[in-house]
Design brief:
two-stranded antiparallel sheet, mainly alpha
């Protein structure tokens, strides 16, 4: 049966009386026959408390005991255990691994917390932004002007209806301005007739009254012309050309009444205008067609007016 040192656990030969590793004496009282595991356990318990006192040498072994005792005083070499020797417990390694595992779990939890929290806040902010945007779009729809000829609708289903409403709106407004042209043309003709009647009269009050009427008509025509220009009818409208013609007709009327007003101003400078006839009528001739007494703006009005009527979209 193999024998092991009861102090250090070294495998002993049958004829050895002392351990060659630690110098502990070997007896035949049964301790040398302990298993390797029991010897290692004894070594662990003793080393944890205090050194095991060396047994007294047997008779006749004084020199050997002295040599062994001297060897025991030397530090035990920290060599790796031989093959077959028991290994030390791994309690310290297990504790170290457990601490590392706990730290890893804590770190992962912190990382997950700080990564998820910002995304949650971003989701809340996105929800608020979406609601606000829907509200804003809804407000924009409310303030849109129904029937605006320059408004375009992105909804394909209602595109045709919106275009029809826009064209109808254009037609209604242009028709209103076009229908007034005939009456304004007559008023300009009446002012011309009044001028021919009173511009050479000595009665200043009559001339002044006629002049004021012509000035008022000129202002009225100018204001209406500005309103028509402000319509800004789109080029693709079916009544775009009609809109341009109506603007030109108002411009014709404005130029025709303007020369009458200028002639009245000259007439009112004289108490006896009959002596200044050529000077007074000079403004009337500046817009005549060369070699005739026909005002070019009057001729243009008469030629343009019939075809300027707006077209209703069915």
């Amino acid at each position: 049966m193999p024998r092991f040192c009861t102090h250090c656990g070294k495998l002993l030969n049958d004829d050895e009386r002392f351990c060659t590793s630690c110098g502990t004496p070997v007896t035949d009282d049964g301790q040398a026959s302990q298993s390797q595991e029991d010897a290692q356990a004894d070594v662990t318990v003793q080393s944890a408390h205090q050194p095991v006192p060396a047994p007294q040498p047997e008779v006749g072994t004084t020199q050997q005991w002295a040599a062994a005792n001297a060897a025991a005083q030397q530090p035990i070499p920290t060599t790796a255990p031989q093959a077959g020797a028991p290994t030390a417990p791994k309690n310290n390694n297990a504790l170290f691994i457990g601490i590392i595992a706990a730290l890893v779990v804590v770190i992962i939890a912190l990382v997950v917390f700080f990564m998820i929290k910002p995304f949650d806040k971003g989701a809340d902010d996105t929800k608020g932004t979406t609601i606000e945007k829907v509200k804003i779009d809804h407000d924009d729809d409310d303030v849109s002007v129904k029937g605006d000829p320059n408004k375009f609708d992105d909804d394909d289903d209602d595109a045709d209806d919106d275009d029809a409403i826009g064209e109808q709106n254009i037609y209604d407004q242009l028709s209103s301005y076009y229908s007034r042209l005939s009456d304004l043309d007559q008023q300009v003709r009446d002012c011309a007739t009044t001028f021919n009647t009173y511009y050479l009269k000595d009665d200043r009050s009559s001339r002044q009254s006629a002049s004021d009427a012509a000035e008022a008509l000129e202002d009225q025509i100018g204001d209406l012309k500005d309103e028509v220009e402000d319509l800004n009818v789109p080029v693709d409208s079916q009544n775009y050309s009609s809109w341009k013609d109506i603007i030109a007709l108002y411009d014709d009327l404005e130029n025709r009444i303007d020369v009458i007003c200028d002639a009245w101003e000259i007439s009112l400078e004289y108490s006896s205008p009959a002596n200044h006839k050529d000077e007074i009528v000079a403004p009337l001739a500046r817009d005549n067609v060369a070699g005739t007494n026909d005002n070019k703006y009057r001729l243009d009005f008469e030629d343009r007016y019939p075809g300027a009527a707006p077209v209703e979209v069915k």
